[in-house]
Amino acid sequence: MSLWMILPVSLPVLTITGIWVVYVVALYNQHVCPVDNWLYNQSCEEELVMQSGPTLCCTLDNVPLISKCGTLPPESCFFSLLCSTGSFMVMVIVLFRYAHVIEKHQNCVLNTASLSTGWICAAGLIMVGNFQVDNAKVLHYVGAGIAFPTSMLFVCLQSALTYQLAKTQAEYNVAHLRLGMSLLAFATLVLSGVFFYQESFVLQHASAILEWVFCVNIMLFYGTFAFEFAGMSRDTMSVLARGGALGSVGREHKVDALGPLGGPSSHSQPHPNQPENMSIL
Length: 281
What we know:
Blueprint: H1 6-28, H2 66-69, H3 75-104, H4 109-130, H5 137-165, H6 169-196, H7 201-223, H8 226-229, H9 234-241, H10 248-258, H11 274-280
Helix pairs in contact: 1-3, 1-7, 3-4, 3-9, 4-5, 5-6, 6-7
């Protein structure tokens, strides 16, 4: 078992814990309303941060969306740090997953597409974390428009890739798990997007909760890569050093050309006309 499996496990542990810390800090500073609050008003006499007492007056500006929780300082600092660190870890995990597939099997369209979407998702996540919605709304929404769809596409591609490469029952079980998580992610993303543009206070709040479910689900999906990362070795790094050009098929051709003892095989002997051909060249 390789210690590399710690990497995909640490991503959901770090990010899920981090966003809840951001939420708790924002709640403590009265920058957002609690998740269990479903009562909102058109307007309030005082801003939420100035209110006191057991009952708070909340407006739609205080809906506990993840982005809203990380808008104002000091929680915005933690949110930016969390998104930047998480995006870097996503890039590394996606790259290692790409190389591991090439090492154990061979490269394919699904593998290359997963690498591209994973890195694009990481770029969008950096924009979401560093351009707060109240300070740079356009850039924040551009980043969210990149990160959310590409993360959805990434989990779908990885689910299909897992089924394509599965050979054992354990691998099929992982594929079933990822398919279920992909379906949950799709449902929560669509419903969250639809509810977000509704005027109903209840639906707006439901959109925030669905956004939390979507993000937690995506992070847990990355954690399932611990199954493959447990079998990673130095050969995976060699694949990256070679630029991902040699998979299992390439290794078989290489071994076949060298022969059983490392020397040239019988069918790799030079052709009798080779000197003549060389002299012509």
